[in-house]
Recover the amino acids of this structure.
């Protein structure tokens, strides 16, 4: 079996691969996360994930590394057809969570699996509905959990998810950052 490389420093993605008992190592390559105009949100997530995977693969080939399977992912939050990224600061995080309050949004994770023989891209989509959140709840969450590295300014597995999520339609783990059950099925095709 090819060695598996996770092209991500996300502790949540590492946790999910561990949960699925997939042995892996982490190699991160910083990339420009910009994307061409006109792509759908699913295409944007896949585009960024593929760029992450290909950057790690290029780096490995440069060092004559053994055959590897590389997994990369990118998670986006989409509200009313607008991609919401990571918050710039406290005020932006509060504004983002205020905009999600009482509404349904989509969480889309693009995944790219690359080996010497194959490349598989897919996107998984989950709908998340928040209860209306009070300003005090939003400020408490931002000040205590500092969700500045998270798309949509929240992590579903943290306090805000426990008290604020009304419903989820789709894969819970996708909202954490990796649709692990689908990834396992795709890896079986790959390996």
């Amino acid at each position: 079996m090819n060695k598996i490389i996770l092209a991500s420093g996300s502790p949540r993605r590492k946790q999910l691969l561990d949960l699925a008992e997939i042995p892996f190592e982490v190699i991160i390559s910083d990339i420009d996360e910009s994307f061409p105009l006109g792509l759908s949100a699913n295409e944007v997530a896949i585009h960024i994930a593929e760029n992450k995977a290909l950057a790690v693969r290029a780096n490995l080939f440069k060092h004559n590394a053994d055959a590897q399977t590389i997994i990369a992912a990118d998670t986006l939050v989409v509200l009313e057809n607008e991609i919401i990224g990571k918050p710039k600061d406290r005020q932006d995080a509060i504004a983002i969570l205020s905009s999600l309050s009482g509404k349904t949004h989509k969480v889309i994770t693009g995944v790219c699996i690359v080996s010497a023989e194959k490349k598989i891209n897919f996107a998984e989509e989950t709908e998340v509905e928040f209860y209306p959140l009070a300003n005090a709840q939003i400020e408490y969450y931002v000040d205590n959990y500092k969700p500045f590295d998270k798309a949509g300014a929240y992590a579903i597995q943290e306090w805000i998810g426990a008290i604020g999520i009304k419903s989820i339609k789709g894969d819970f783990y996708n909202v954490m950052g990796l649709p692990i059950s689908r990834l396992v099925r795709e890896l079986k095709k790959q390996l």
